[in-house]
């Protein structure tokens, strides 16, 4: 087999066989196929697309390019959740203990933040003592005992995807639905999920700015998951503003505690209940989505969800006193208010601008090596639909520096104010099941 023939075949719109896809992915991972040939292939795939079968084969070839996590020692159906990007997305911190509290095993591998999106592992590290590095046996034991553990990415998972993603980044081929879908799904499957709930964001702060593209991405991922024998559903949710009020590591932990307490922001709570009900249903802990939702609401109201968070934190050596005293979380030296200089209704809050503003305060990493400040970030005082009077506080910064003029400029740019009241906002646009 020769790579040049496969490139020509895809260039001409033909379908690649499983053997051909395996040849290409193995050869590329081992360094036998050079970057220039893989670049040409990525561009051909970008224009010619792939059938569902090709997408499944590409995904599985990437899964098989490295280690896979074996969760078979954990009882029950392991359901994973993945959110595509998003800013101030606190859902994993809430969902992990929430669904565990109704008996769904959560064995989650999470990443650190990069650029303007945050990472669950960083957020958890703002709890004193919290260990994110666990060996496989400890991880399995914790999930069997407490129903929940979250571990940092380790091992050599999907090296083919790492290499291909880096190549796509510099060859203008990131934004391709079959390539994004197989990239994300390969990582979920390699980390051992039996079933997968996808949270695909759409809006100005998301990968997929419009609803049609988000739907196509969700369908592509659901097609791959189901084709690979992992029951998968995709929820399409709004990212025309950051989720909840808090953006920043310790600030989001506090917001997660509030939500598990039943006092969280409305949009964040609703999205967690929606994603959580699908997780509980896929794990076969409820006969219907409605029943699952009622179980989750009961877990919040009875305090069981918060108790599970406490057990989860203690299981990983974290200081659980932060749950009753969130002031023990890292705190920035000062807060500064950003004041509106015009009046109007908030139509949109460009989420990635807010993410970048939080990053400028030190909450995000600009490169993989940079240190982050867990205490800083921002809290939105106004959300979409709110009326803002000139002089009102738009956002409260939690900062360790008073040189905030650039951050202030960014935040003001992110808020789009108009005279007319916007139409009621949709949070969940669609649920894709096949
Ligand atoms: N996230 C991924 O992991 N892969 C992509 O291709 C795009 C976003
Ligand atoms: Ca948030």
From TrEMBL:
Annotated organism of origin: Halolactibacillus halophilus
Role played: Catalyzes phosphorolysis of the pyrimidine nucleosides uridine, thymidine and 2'-deoxyuridine with the formation of the corresponding pyrimidine base and ribose-1-phosphate.
Protein name: Pyrimidine-nucleoside phosphorylase
SMART domains according to UniProt: PYNP_C
Every Pyrimidine nucleoside phosphorylase C-terminal domain range: 345-418
One GO CC term, this protein: cytosol
GO MF entries: 1,4-alpha-oligoglucan phosphorylase activity; metal ion binding; thymidine phosphorylase activity
Family: Belongs to the thymidine/pyrimidine-nucleoside phosphorylase family.
High-level lineage: Bacteria, Bacillati, Bacillota, Bacilli, Bacillales
Keywords in alphabetical order: Glycosyltransferase, Metal-binding, Potassium, Transferase
InterPro entries in the record: Glycosyl_Trfase_fam3, Glycosyl_Trfase_fam3_N_dom, Glycosyl_Trfase_fam3_N_dom_sf, Nuc_phospho_transferase, PYNP-like_C_sf, PYNP_C, Pyrmidine_PPas_bac/euk, Pyrmidine_PPase_CS
Cofactor: K(+)
Listed EC numbers: 2.4.2.2
Domain of life: Bacteria
Subunit comment: Homodimer.
A biological-process GO annotation: pyrimidine nucleoside metabolic process
Catalytic class of the enzyme: transferase
């Amino acid at each position: 087999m020769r790579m040049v023939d496969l490139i020509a075949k895809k260039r001409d719109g033909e379908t690649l066989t499983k053997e051909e896809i395996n040849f290409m992915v193995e050869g590329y991972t081992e360094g036998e196929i050079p970057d220039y040939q893989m670049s040409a292939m990525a561009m051909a795939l970008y224009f010619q697309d792939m059938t569902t079968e090709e997408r499944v084969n590409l995904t599985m070839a990437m899964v098989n390019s490295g280690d896979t996590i074996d969760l078979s020692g954990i009882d029950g159906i392991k359901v994973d959740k993945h959110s595509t990007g998003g800013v101030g997305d606190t859902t994993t911190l809430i969902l992990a203990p929430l669904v565990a509290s109704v008996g769904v095993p959560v064995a989650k591998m999470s990443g650190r933040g990069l650029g303007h999106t945050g990472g669950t592992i960083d957020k958890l590290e703002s709890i004193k003592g919290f260990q994110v590095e666990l060996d496989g046996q400890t991880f399995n034991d914790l999930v069997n005992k407490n129903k929940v553990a979250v571990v940092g990415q380790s091992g050599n998972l999907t090296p083919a995807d790492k290499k291909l993603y880096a190549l796509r980044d510099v060859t203008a081929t990131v934004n391709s639905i079959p390539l994004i879908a197989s990239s994300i799904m390969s990582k979920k499957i390699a980390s051992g999920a039996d079933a997968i709930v996808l949270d695909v964001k759409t809006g100005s702060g998301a990968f997929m700015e419009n609803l049609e593209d988000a739907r196509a991405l969700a369908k592509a991922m659901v097609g791959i998951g189901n084709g690979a024998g992992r029951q998968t559903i995709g929820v399409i949710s709004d990212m025309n503003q950051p989720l909840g009020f808090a953006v920043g590591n310790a600030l989001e932990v506090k917001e997660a505690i509030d939500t598990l307490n039943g006092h969280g922001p409305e949009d964040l709570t609703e999205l967690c209940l929606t994603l959580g009900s699908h997780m509980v249903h896929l794990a076969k802990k409820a006969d219907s989505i409605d029943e699952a939702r009622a179980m989750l609401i009961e877990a919040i109201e009875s305090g069981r969800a918060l108790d599970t968070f406490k057990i989860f934190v203690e299981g990983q050596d974290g200081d659980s006193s932060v749950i009753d005293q969130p002031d023990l979380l890292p705190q920035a030296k000062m807060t500064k208010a950003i004041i509106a200089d015009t009046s109007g209704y908030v139509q949109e809050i460009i989420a990635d601008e807010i993410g970048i503003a939080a990053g400028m305060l030190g909450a995000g990493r600009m490169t993989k090596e940079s240190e982050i400040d867990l205490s800083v970030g921002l809290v939105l005082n106004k959300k979409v639909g709110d009326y803002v009077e000139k002089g009102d506080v738009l956002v409260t910064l939690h900062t360790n520096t008073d040189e905030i003029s650039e951050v202030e400029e960014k935040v003001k740019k992110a808020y789009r104010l108009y005279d007319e009241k916007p139409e009621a906002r949709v949070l969940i646009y669609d649920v894709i099941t096949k």
